[in-house]
Amino acid sequence: MMMSKTRMRSLFSVTLLLLLALTLAAEASRKAKNHKGGKHDKSRPASDCPPADTQYGKCVPEHGDCGDGLRDATCKDRTDKIHCKIPCNWKKDISDCKYKFGPWGSCDGASNTKSRSGTLKRALFNAECQATVKVSKPCSPKVKKAKGDKKSN
Hints:
- This protein has helices spanning 5-37, 39-42, and strands at residues 55-56, 60-61, 67-75, 78-86, 97-101, 113-123, 132-138.
- It is an alpha+beta fold.
- It starts with a helix and ends in a 15-residue tail after the last strand.
- The model is unreliable at 34-42 (pLDDT under 50).
């Protein structure tokens, strides 16, 4: 079966157009995926404002009181929502402040808690942070034995 030259050219043109459309769609998908998943893009507002001129709101978790969330980033007249994360084992009031903590103190029998203090390392998102903080947690109910101790009968 023989095809005419005109029909062969039109088939070639359609194939070429489909290949071009497929290539453009794949490239657009790749760019969207890289933009969405980029770690740097998630934590910065989409505007061209420098971080020093941007006011950041508190991180608001999407579910519960910790985990992935969103915060407002405002610069000039523009407000963007940017991704943030609140660790589930952390104090909510100091979550944007990074501290260097000392060792845990001994257990206070009256309150059944132990505490430690930390000094400010850096503030994230222009947060207002205390120079030092004190955190506490309940004492462990188990008494840890030294490695050399054996169970006596």
